[in-house]
Amino acid sequence: MFFLGLVVCPGSGETAALPEILLESGDSMFNVKKMLAAGALCLVAAVGLAGCGGGQDAASSSGSKVLKVGASVDFAPFEFQDEGQSEYQGFDMDLIRAIGKEMGYEVEISNIGFDGLIPALQAKNVDVLISGVTINDERKQNVDFSDPYYESGLTIVVREDEQAIKTFEDLKGKKIAVQIGTTSAKEAKKIEGAEVKELNTPADCFMELKNGGVDAVVNDRPVNDYYIHTSGQTGVKTLPERLTSEDYGIAVAKGNTELVGKINAALKKLKENGEYDKIFAKWFGTQK
Ligand code: ARG
């Protein structure tokens, strides 16, 4: 004679149907077997449950998917950190958080030096880069880019009393500081007779300029403008001429078309629903 017994696994709240052979009650051997069977089932159930939640290494404790973002947090107003504040802030930071939210991902941002960003992406330490990264053919050989999300370009910063440097032409034979690994570094190296100092951050470049170690800094226009106008720095000025026109893009590992597709769809949505404009106005005012 058979019956189906219900075994309740202690603590798991799960129940499992257990086929059992009914023997005379009071048979002690049967009770041992029954206990063993119940234990085995609990084990199976526990492993099964663990299996459901596991296997997604990019899952956070709250269960949502995680987008691992790399940024060189040294580039106000795109990515920077105010003293005493733990959160990274800036246009890029707000934008990628909004994109992540749109995609249903939790965003986790790591601060990585600019020249280490593409290697970090290639090593799969991060899923995307947002860091005022200019889209260009050289980089396209190593990474894929989203649609452009910001139009930028390079300008010059000099000391306030500088008379000799008014345009890029005037940088010939001069000492120039640039952030390492940037388009500014690439452009500055093309200038005839220029001595180019590649430093870790734009802040280091500005410091070098103020200290008289270089004659000029070449760097992205919005960052130069923010440094001088918003941070209220004195003793330096930015020149109006723009050397290049550059588009910023979000970079993903080469061939990750699925992720680029998701990012572009989210970006499009944010442009349509006014969220992009809100973030833009927060950091740059209303004029484009
Ligand atoms: N747009 C320039 C480039 O792509 C500079 C970017 C620097 N970004 C930064 N977060 N420091 O080379």
Structural features:
binds arginine; D-Maltodextrin-Binding Protein, domain 2; 3 domains; alpha/beta; 288 residues; disordered N terminus; globular; 5-stranded mixed sheet
Tell me what you see in this structure:
The protein starts with a strand and ends with a helix. Strand 1 and strand 2 form a beta hairpin. Strands 4-3-5-14-6 form a 5-stranded mixed sheet. Strands 10-9-11-8-12 form a 5-stranded mixed sheet. A two-stranded antiparallel ribbon has the order 1-2. It is α/β, with parallel strands linked by helices and 288 residues long. The protein is globular and about 60 Å long. Residues 1-30 and 38-57 have low confidence and may be disordered. The protein has helices at residues 28-53, 91-103, 117-122, 137-140, 183-188, 202-210, 221-230, 257-272, 275-284, and strands at 2-8, 15-21, 65-71, 105-111, 128-129, 143-145, 150-152, 154-159, 175-179, 195-199, 216-220, 236-238, 246-248, 251-253. It is built from 9 helices and 14 strands. It folds into 3 domains: 2-53, no CATH class; 65-150 and 248-284, Periplasmic binding protein-like II (D-Maltodextrin-Binding Protein, domain 2, 3-Layer(aba) Sandwich); 154-244, D-Maltodextrin-Binding Protein, domain 2. The structure holds arginine. Arginine binds next to loops.
